[in-house]
């Protein structure tokens, strides 16, 4: 009995959410149904990730999760770019980065820290993650500073944007080579050895092949439900008088990252903090170093060039998020209070964006 | 004989300073007497702190010292807020933060480092202190950036200020829970073990109860003498043509933190660098995360709302101080040259503030 | 036979380059000859450095290399200051700092990392280098921020510049005392012990005395050839329409640091990463904390006062370079990907400076 209620509710809420969306039901009803559906699909994705992570190791599992999670964001981004809605794209990129670094990582460290006094992950990985985050910031700050202090022609702006985007994509692809191939052991999870001694504790529900299929299916479901939910939010934005940037940076980021949230927190509470960090930081790195630059290239291919220049408050928000996340993770050791510090910064940014 | 000269001079200079203040003697005379009295009361406070620190452990002792030291600043701040002198309040908050991070910490590391080649303190504490400092900076930077780039209504400015102040106070109180209760051992002083083996070296002068009473009495005396001394400085400001911000950020900070100075340096020279750092960094954290936000709430209660927006040069001064202090302390190991680097930054800020 | 071709070509290209310069040959021909000569003299300097480094230890060898390398820059700087070409001086100071931190260090870590999976150097040195870099940034940022937000009189600007320059020179000289005298062992190279076991591998070509003489001769040759080469670049600047700041910050920096490049990369590939880092970071620190302040004093002595205020994009470029270099080196462990990250930032700055 217990075995079937979860898949049943998962499929039911998903279908209801789909019907509501395409039949154009009342927005408030659509919102409620989609929000419930998100909980179930996020839970499904979390289980699939955990299972794949069992077979693949914490880091590869975390990477797969981050990638599938961001596939949805990439698709939504391309749709927005093709409509020329550059401000919303940049706001939601900003929101994804700070949402992952502050909210997802903060809740994971907090929840994990309440259960385990100190949680450790590979300190070399922590250092490299920090340096990659700084590359992402520099790639956004430098063009903004140069273009703000020197009035450049539109053409030069596009050249800077494309070159910087190209550098980021190359850096990201080589990061995959480095972390998955040449220095895989060097970045291995510190707790992996001890896990081997407790195989029964983490016995997976599904076979390796089924886990991968479920991971893909769950990701696709999350992508659809997220979009349906985001769609209903537009109506809310107008109703409650929220600014586009607040909705992009906070509401969309919270909802759109529901999958990362649930998976990362669940893993943290099982003391797999390495995988949690990989999801949260890995996902924000993927947005900054891969999704954002790809969107710039796509915008040029579509003939509506988007530049890489973010607004001052977006840069400030990304900058402070990276600054505190780097400071907290760089020793490879975490506790509940560090999670709380990240959430405090999220709160400060939240109230600031809300009032703008 | 030797036993009585110190308390005698302590009481004598304190009384003379009090009489001079209330009888409104010549300002120059008042200044000289108060300055001498400060030396004695600061020495008294240093001894009381050391004694309490013997019973309570380095960290709790340092915390008590920082709290009693900042009680004076809180009282002076409330007086200034009730007079609507917001610029001076913010300048003296700035001065307390940079004075503690650069001057007190710098002199402690320098003096301790001349005597001991390398001094170590808990590296986990160093990391957390760094993250807390960053939270303090973010809380000041974010409102300033958002309010400078988007003209907000006065009401919204107050909302941001109150929410951010509330977040800081909660974060500070939970930091006490974390550092004093849930993770006390984790942040314990690294040298405490070895101290146990040398109890005779640190034999305290007074009993536990008497030490605590003396700590409170000394703090109250420091608060009074500091205020009398600061009072005479107003006359000096006009006489020598110094700007209010320079007096607030440097003169008041040096005099007002005399107690922290003497205690921190004395502890560093006894190789209790953990307690020194706790006084210097703990005191600046307490100002940023507790005293400043409480003053904002008090200003609203008094009906003269003060916002949290500091000037660009105040933010720059706090920012660079945190940046260098974090870099120097994050490895939990200090030497004389690192103290000197902090003093160099203090000098750079000093000449810049002097000429503005 | 093999023994003589290198010195022969070294002297031949050097002489041809000299004749071309003084006989005022065709600029393109001068450029080609000087560029070839630079390769040989840089190679000669690299060998001499390696030999001296064998006798003196990695760090002292690296320091000597950095000092001799920057002697050339100091001389060129004095010539430019006496001509009142302050913008070019500041652009080339900027270029030297970012060239050393990003290009020289980046290529060293990359080349060394391709050969050795992980390379380690003294972690305490890494931390102190980071703090010194931050002092250098603060010394440039604080005057710029104070002077931009408060219109100061020219006289006050000079006072700030001289005081800050004086503080930097004192800090640099005391750093030499600290690192060469009081804490020499503390900062010793981590791999030195293991080297002792393999003396035959590093057997030097020359005696100690001859190595030192060759180091001085090679440095002088590099200084001359660099200047001749830089001289030809002025013509190129006009021909290809490059901005002065791009030429100063990139072309001059690459050519003028050819010696550091070759020496640092060669040492990295021999697993002497400590010496590589000392050359790259040590050289940029020497420029920021010694060469730049000395040029300010010289400018006042020559009666053409130069201030310490750099442009916004120069500050941004130096700031991001320090930020990423500090993040990458602070754990005292390096790999090929970290080198690549530094080169990515160099590329981002390069395209931005190119288009301004």
Automatic annotation (TrEMBL), chains A, B, C:
Q: One short Pfam family name for this protein? A: Na_Ca_ex
Query: Species name for this entry?
Result: Paenibacillus zeisoli
- Keyword annotations from UniProtKB, A to Z: Antiport, Calcium, Calcium transport, Ion transport, Membrane, Transmembrane, Transmembrane helix, Transport
Domain Sodium/calcium exchanger membrane region residues, every copy: 28-180, 211-349
- What high-level taxonomic lineage is stated for the organism? Bacteria, Bacillati, Bacillota, Bacilli, Bacillales
Its function, per the record, reads:
Ca(+)/H(+) antiporter that extrudes calcium in exchange for external protons.
Query: What are the GO cellular component annotations?
Result: endomembrane system; membrane
Topology relative to the membrane, per the entry?
Answer: Multi-pass membrane protein
Tell me where the transmembrane regions lie.
30-48, 60-81, 93-114, 126-147, 159-178, 212-233, 245-267, 279-302, 308-325, 337-355
Q: Which NCBIfam families match?
A: cax (TIGR00378)
Primary location recorded for the protein, binned into one broad class: membrane
Instruction: Please state which protein family the record places this protein in.
Output: Belongs to the Ca(2+):cation antiporter (CaCA) (TC 2.A.19) family.
> Single Gene Ontology BP term?
intracellular calcium ion homeostasis
The record's GO molecular-function terms, alphabetically, read: calcium:proton antiporter activity
Q: Which Gene3D superfamilies match?
A: NCX, central ion-binding region (1.20.1420.30)
**Annotated protein name in UniProt:** Ca(2+)/H(+) antiporter
Localization annotation: Endomembrane system
């Amino acid at each position: 009995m217990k075995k079937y209620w979860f898949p049943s509710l998962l499929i039911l809420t998903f279908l209801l959410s789909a019907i509501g969306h395409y039949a154009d039901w009342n927005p408030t009803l659509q919102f409620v149904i989609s929000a419930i559906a998100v909980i179930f699909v996020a839970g499904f994705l979390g289980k699939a990730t955990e299972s794949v992570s069992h077979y693949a190791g914490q880091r590869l599992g975390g990477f797969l999760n981050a990638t599938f999670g961001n596939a949805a964001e990439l698709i939504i981004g391309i749709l927005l770019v093709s409509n020329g809605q550059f401000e919303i794209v940049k706001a939601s990129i900003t929101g994804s980065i700070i949402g992952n670094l502050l909210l997802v990582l903060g809740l994971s460290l907090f929840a994990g820290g309440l259960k385990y006094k100190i949680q450790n992950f590979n300190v070399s990985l922590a250092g490299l993650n920090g340096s990659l985050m700084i590359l992402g910031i520099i790639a956004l700050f430098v063009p903004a500073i140069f273009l703000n202090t020197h009035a450049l022609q539109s053409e030069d702006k596009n050249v800077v944007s494309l070159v910087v985007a190209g550098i980021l994509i190359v850096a990201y692809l080589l990061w995959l080579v480095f972390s998955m191939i040449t220095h895989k052991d060097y970045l291995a999870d510190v707790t992996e050895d001890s896990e081997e001694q407790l195989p029964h504790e983490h016995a997976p529900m599904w076979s390796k092949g089924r886990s991968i299929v479920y991971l893909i299916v769950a990701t696709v479901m999350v992508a659809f439900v997220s979009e349906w939910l985001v769609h209903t939010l537009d109506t809310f934005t107008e109703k409650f008088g929220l600014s586009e940037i607040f909705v992009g940076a906070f509401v969309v980021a919270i909802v759109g990252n529901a999958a990362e949230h649930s998976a990362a927190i669940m893993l943290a509470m099982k003391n797999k903090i390495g995988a949690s960090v990989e999801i949260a930081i890995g996902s924000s790195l993927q947005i900054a170093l891969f999704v954002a630059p790809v969107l710039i290239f796509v915008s040029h291919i579509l003939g509506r060039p988007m530049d890489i220049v973010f607004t001052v408050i977006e840069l400030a928000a990304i900058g402070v998020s990276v600054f505190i996340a780097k400071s907290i993770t760089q020793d490879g050791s975490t506790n509940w209070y560090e999670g709380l510090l990240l959430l405090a910064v999220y709160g400060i940014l939240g109230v600031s964006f809300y009032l703008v």
